[in-house]
Amino acid sequence: MVCLGIAQGLFVTLRALFRKPFTVQYPEEKLPIARRLRGNEFFWDIERCTGCATCAKLCPQGNIEIVTHPEGGRYVVDKYEIDTGRCIFCGCCVESCPFDALHFGRSFEKAEYTRKSLVKSRDDLRHEVDLSTFVRPRFEQMSDEERAPIPYGTPQELGAGKEVA
To answer: How far is CA 153 from CA 16, 25, 37, 106, 123, in A?
Structure first.
């Protein structure tokens, strides 16, 4: 009885010995990433943002800080910061933006050495990003060229922006 258990165990080991390994050597080899991955990067489109602060209001952690001032009948965004060190990447901010000004990226390799560098300012959020389709599945049918400029009019074309008295 004991010999049968040892033989079965050795058989499992020998069978696994001759199989092709399914692990990858991560830094050198990378597996394909799903289009709907919520990466730990954001893309903010300043042309589409009206400064309504809907994303900041709906953030459960309170990680988004927006400072605006009125200019010419509209609000201009002076400061836009996201603390990605405290962010839980739930997607509430991206989902709530009425003008598609905030998007998730697909990158997940964004380690930093200090907490200060995890606070992303408006300039840090303006770089080219491979957009995630997590919140906006309509991006899945688009090619990368179609997705790069967001395929909708600017907020001004759509009649957005709060009129200032």
So the answer is: 56, 44, 26, 24, 22
The enclosing H or E element of 3 equals helix 2-17
Please state, in angstroms and rounded to a whole number, the distance separating the CA atoms of residues 161 and 154. Answer: 11
Q: Is position 5 within any domain?
A: no
Tell which residue, 160, 139, 163, has the closest CA to residue 151: 139
The string of pLDDT tens digits covering residues 59-92 is: 999 999 999 999 988 899 999 999 999 999 999 9
Report yes or no: 80 and 73 within 8 Å, Cβ to Cβ.
no
pTM of the model: 0.70
We report the CATH number of the domain holding residue 55 as 3.30.70.3270
Q: Is residue 156 part of a domain?
A: no
d(CA 132, CA 107): 9
How far apart, in whole angstroms, are the C-alpha atoms of residue 118 and residue 86? 9
User: How many structural domains comprise the chain?
Assistant: 1
